């Protein structure tokens, strides 16, 4: 059930975002890849070239800090200038983790995390939504986490933000279902991304032990989940959690 139009993916240059961009390209979507740091430009350019070469679609890298509303407007303005107003899919994926006890994390640190992991979801959706309402269709998918489902020690700010994404998803689905816009979330478990690769082997082994399947997921698992969501015409307001059974 391919939607007419193109996709925008925030935090798309690496990890889960990169895998989701490639999946969208494989399904024939032109993809706008958002990134924030200068150091990610080369990787974004490489990803765009890979999508275009392997799948014959068009890609566009746009640098923007999506925690800032004006930069979200810039992101969408550049997307529309390149590919037109038919924004079929918005993937709100930008995110960071701090990983400190709530006794140690500073207000500046947790405010920054909330801005990137939750406020950016509201910002980007707020800017994209008028286009989807006008065309009377669209799919919005946001990255939550098992932290938003069950809470994680030393990740109070992260868990709060990711739980917020779930609440956002439910309310948006109710309000904009009549406009044929689906709104869903993905809550990944432990996935091999840069966040996890920085952990000790002992920590990784511990995570495997508490996961019924006994493995760590791959970014492709999340990309496959995204594919299911955007092609499911009767799915909205849901949070799907590929996590190997961690939340049982």
TrEMBL record:
Signal sequence extent: none
Superkingdom of the source species: Archaea
The EC number(s) this enzyme carries: 1.1.1.100
GO MF annotation terms: 3-oxoacyl-[acyl-carrier-protein] reductase (NADPH) activity
Pfam families registered for this protein in UniProt: adh_short
First-tier enzyme category under EC: oxidoreductase
Keyword terms, alphabetized: Oxidoreductase
Gene3D superfamilies hit by this protein: NAD(P)-binding Rossmann-like Domain
A GO biological-process term: fatty acid elongation
Cited InterPro entries: NAD(P)-bd_dom_sf, Sc_DH/Rdtase_CS, SDR_fam
Family: Belongs to the short-chain dehydrogenases/reductases (SDR) family.
Name of the protein: 3-oxoacyl-[acyl-carrier-protein] reductase FabG
Gene for this chain: fabG
């Amino acid at each position: 059930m391919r939607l007419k139009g193109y996709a925008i993916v925030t935090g798309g240059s690496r990890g889960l975002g990169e895998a989701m961009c490639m999946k969208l390209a494989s399904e024939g979507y032109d993809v706008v890849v958002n990134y924030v740091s200068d150091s990610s430009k080369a990787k974004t350019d490489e990803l765009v070239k890979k999508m275009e070469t392997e799948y014959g679609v068009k890609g566009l890298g746009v640098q923007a800090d999506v925690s800032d509303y004006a930069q979200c407007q810039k992101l969408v303005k550049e997307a529309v200038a390149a590919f037109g107003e038919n924004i079929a899919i918005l993937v709100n994926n930008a995110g960071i983790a701090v990983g400190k006890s709530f006794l140690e994390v500073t207000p500046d640190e947790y405010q920054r995390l909330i801005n990137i992991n939750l406020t950016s979801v509201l910002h980007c959706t707020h800017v994209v939504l008028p286009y989807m309402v006008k065309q009377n269709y669209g799919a919005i998918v946001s990255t939550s986490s098992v932290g938003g489902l069950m809470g994680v020690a030393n990740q109070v700010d992260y868990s709060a933000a990711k739980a917020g994404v779930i609440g956002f998803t439910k309310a948006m689905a109710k309000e904009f279902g009549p406009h044929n816009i689906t709104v869903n979330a993905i809550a990944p478990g432990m996935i091999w991304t840069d966040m996890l690769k920085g952990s000790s082997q002992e920590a990784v082994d511990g995570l495997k032990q508490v996961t019924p399947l006994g493995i760590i997921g791959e970014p492709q698992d999340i990309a496959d989940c995204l594919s299911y969501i955007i092609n499911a015409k009767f799915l909205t307001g849901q949070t799907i959690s590929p996590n190997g059974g961690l939340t049982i």
